Structures are given as C-alpha cells and as structure tokens.
Amino acid sequence: MVKQLPQVRGDVHRRPGFFPRALVSALAAGSCATAFAFEFPPNLPARNEGLWQMSQTATVRDGGRTLEVRKVWNVCLDARASRALHELEVRERQASAARRQESCEDPRPEFSGNTLSWAMHCTGRSPTAHNIDIRHATLFLSRDETRAESAVTDRSGSAQRRDLVFTHMKRLGACEKGWKPGDMRLMHWRVDGDETLKGRQDGDVYREIENHKAFTASRLGR
C-alpha cells in the first residue's frame, strides 16, 4: 500500500515555473550569496541519477477566477542536482514573496518517515499589511518517484487567498544525449487545459537558483 502524502495544513505560497533571466548576473554574487542560510538535512536521500519528468499542477486564484496551471519539465539529475532542485523550490517561493516586497524567514527543513518538510513565514515592511505562510512536503515513494504538495496562504489585502501546488516526479531513464546534471527543459505549460507554450524552453537548475536569489536580493535591497 502506498503511503499517503501528509496533508499540508495552515498557510502557504506557490511556484509557477522558469524565472525570467533579464537579471544582472553580478547580483547573484556578493551579498545575495549570503542573503539566506539554510541547509537540508544530511539524511535527505538523493533521487536516482538520470532523466526525470516533473509534472506540476497549481490551483491559482486570479481575481474572482480559479485557474488550473499545469507545467511539465524534463530534468537531468545526479545527487547534487537532486538536492539543488529542493533548494530551487525554496528560492522560487522567496522570490515570489519578494515581488511584493515581502521577506521570508529561512526554512528549517526536516526529513522524517520518507518525507521532507519545511515552512516559511513572510512579511512586508509593515507586519500588519502583508502576511504569507508557506508549507511544503515531499514524499519519497522510492528513489525513482516523489510526490510533493505546497500550500501558500496569503493574507495580504482584504481577503485570504490559498494556492495549492502538487508536483509528481518520476525517473524516465538515462539523461538525454548532451545533457549534464541540472539541465532542464519546460515541455508544456497549460492553463485550464490550453497549451500556452510556444516552444520548449531550456534551463538549468543552478542558474535558476542564482536568478531567483539575485531577484530577491534586488527587490529587498540586500
């Protein structure tokens, strides 16, 4: 019997996809390199090496509408890239909050019972004006398959908003010829079932991390 992913309770925020690269690379060095300090637990297992498919479905509130956004990536992993992909999840959430001038506390990831979990609380310059809570859990079904859930509760403004993101990852086999660990490709980007991606987009896990760190540092003046 497959163990169920623990329900993410409370408050949380969301991650849609590749981050724009129109950032000054110098921002990724210097102050932003030390802007955050968190580590994943040493007992966190690495996903098996090879090509993985990552399918992500987000339920997003846009004004009075609720949209379903689905993105699919292929990503080449080794042990280091597997851990970096966990970090990318955190950096994307921090950058998303920074867009609204909100700073997130560092998460304290824990691994127990085949589940990686972490949480962050984000606030703006005025603690009463902005308030975002983010909770995340990744369940290792095996070294070849994971399932994750992120919940983002946004109390900014007059109404509370809660977004949910579900991510399923499964190993497909060997990495594509010419790919190195960390290489990734956005294959699909569908909104309410309609494909919006005009062409497949190549990226890199490590570069995406630095882009998010640079953006967060620039928005928060770090």
Please render the helix and strand layout as text.
Blueprint: E1 50-62, E2 65-77, H1 79-98, E3 103-104, E4 110-112, E5 115-123, E6 131-142, E7 145-154, E8 161-173, E9 183-191, E10 194-195, E11 201-204, H2 205-220
Antiparallel strand pairs: 1-2, 1-8, 2-9, 3-5, 4-5, 5-6, 6-7, 7-8, 9-10, 9-11
Helix pairs in contact: 1-2
Give your account of this protein's structure.
The protein is of the alpha+beta class and 222 residues long. It has one domain (47-220). 16% of the residues lie in helices and 41% in strands. The chain has 2 helices and 11 strands, in the order ββαβββββββββα. It has helices at 79-98, 205-220, and strands at residues 50-62, 65-77, 103-104, 110-112, 115-123, 131-142, 145-154, 161-173, 183-191, 194-195, 201-204. A hairpin with a 2-residue loop joins β1 and β2. α1 runs parallel beside α2. The longest helix is centred in the middle third of the chain and has 20 residues, at 79-98. Residues 1-36 have low confidence and may be disordered.
Residue stretches low in confidence (pLDDT < 50, at least 5 long) are 1-36
- Put simply, the count of helices is 2
The helix/strand series, from N terminus to C terminus, equals: EEHEEEEEEEEEH
Give the % helix.
10-25%
Roughly what fraction of the amino acids lie in strands? Answer: 35-45%
Instruction: Characterize the largest beta sheet: strand count, sense, and whether it forms a barrel.
Output: 11 strands, antiparallel
Structural class: alpha+beta
- Termini separation: 48 Å
Average of per-residue pLDDT values: 81
- Backbone shape: globular
Tell me how many strands there are: 11
Estimate nothing, just give the exact number of structural domains: 1
